[in-house]
Amino acid sequence: MSTHRSVILGCGSYLPERVLSNSELAKMVDTSDEWIVERTGIRERRIAAEGECTSDLAIAASRRAIENAEIEAGEIDLIVLATSTPDYTFPATAVTVQAELGITQGAAFDVQAVCTGFVYAISTANAFLQSGQHTRALVIGAETFSRILDWEDRGTCVIFGDGAGAVVLEGRKLNGAANERGIITTRMRADGRYQDKLYVDGGPSSTQTTGHLRMEGREVFKHAVVNIASVMEEALDEAGVDAKDVDWFVPHQANKRILDGTARRFGIPEERVVVTVDRHGNTSAASIPLALDVAQKDGRIKQGDLVLMEAMGGGFTWGAVLVRW
Fold first, then answer.
1. Same domain, 21 and 169
2. Are residues 58 and 156 in the same domain?
3. 252 catalytically annotated
4. Is 4 designated active site?
5. 134, 252, 255, 280: which is the annotated catalytic residue?
6. Shared-domain flag, residues 168 and 213
7. Given 22, 227, 255, 282, which residue is catalytic?
């Protein structure tokens, strides 16, 4: 068992200025506000401005997280950025963030697990901090999904939005207290047999194009309910806690029906579920840190609270994180 635990020192987020409402979308594609709300719970989403890149969103969110953590950027020696919409094929968007923040030491790299990206990123950073190889990590989820949407496909273009969220982690030695702060357990899973259910139909090696997002919504929904439940059970069982012990459930903001169904399955009351999908849409890897920042800023999530996060994305990938705030 590791003698270190990764403590969340602070979080931050950034949303582009442009708000795209359901009523506006209804003028672009065959849909309606009622149809979108009924099926997804989404009322609006943010769209990055022309020339506004994923790195721009990530940098803004990171600066706010660093300020919230009350540290200097130079104290960070690891950046892990989750995104499916990087600025370039390479270099990693994380190194752009590193340079803009003035950080010249440590490591910086991207991870790609689509909507599960933040879970994968924080799990990866946690492993490095637990090992003692790094001291403080900046973990980011940032996306400009508007750039890979087919705006004539009402099954996908109404769901996704742009945004970024970030957290600062610090590796600390365990002192044996019963309610010690920090990440208690992480779980990452994948099953590549289902990659054709949620994917982008382009890439540098296959088509030499960016491509557009494609999704079989019913299949994704069906697998999400089962996979998310199983990985949450694993995380809770390993930690030796029950769902009723969870103070705040912060799920990936994919679809309100999935959020509600998962919460009911575990007996988590609606008032303990952090929901931002109505305002943000599905921001993929950014959705969990965006929701964390909202709930911390409005005073819901407080130090010492037990917070459970989960996500599922294309691949399929899925995972969960349990943390004492």
1. yes
2. yes
3. yes
4. no
5. 252
6. no
7. 282
| Active-site option among 68, 115, 134, 157 | 115
Burial class (CB in 10 A: 0-12, 13-18, 19+), 131: exposed
The domain that contains 248 carries what CATH number? 3.40.47.10
**29 and 109 both lie in a single domain:** yes
| Tens-digit pLDDT string for the chain (325 aa) | 457 899 999 999 999 999 999 999 999 999 999 999 999 999 999 999 999 999 999 999 999 999 999 999 999 999 999 999 999 999 999 999 999 999 999 999 999 999 999 999 999 999 999 999 999 999 999 999 999 999 999 999 999 999 999 999 999 998 877 689 999 999 999 999 999 999 999 999 999 999 999 999 999 999 998 999 999 999 999 999 999 999 999 999 999 999 999 999 999 999 999 999 999 999 999 999 999 999 999 999 999 999 999 999 999 999 999 999 9
Number of domains forming the structure of the chain: 2
User: Do 158 and 191 reside in the same domain of the chain?
Assistant: no
Please name which of 74, 86, 88, 64 lies closest in space to residue 9, comparing C-alpha atoms: 64
Answer yes or no: 115 catalytic.
Answer: yes
Q: 22 vs 19, 97, 147, 153, 270, CA distance in Å?
A: 10, 32, 18, 14, 24
The sign of the dihedral angle between the CA atoms of 288, 290, 150, 203 is negative
Statement to judge: residues 76 and 166 lie in one domain: yes
Q: Pick the closest to residue 165 from 57, 28, 24, 266 (CA basis).
A: 57
The residue assigned the tokens 């109404």 is 158
| Residue ranges making up the domain that contains 271 | 182-324
Strands 317-324 and 182-190, sheet pairing: antiparallel
140 and 198 part of one domain: no
Of the candidates 155, 173, 191, which is a domain's last residue? 173
Helix (H, G, I), strand (E, B) or coil at 148: helix
Tell me which of 173, 198, 222 is where a domain ends: 173
- DSSP per-residue letters across 34-52: HHHHHHH---EEEEPPTT-
Do 138 and 186 lie in one domain? The reply is no
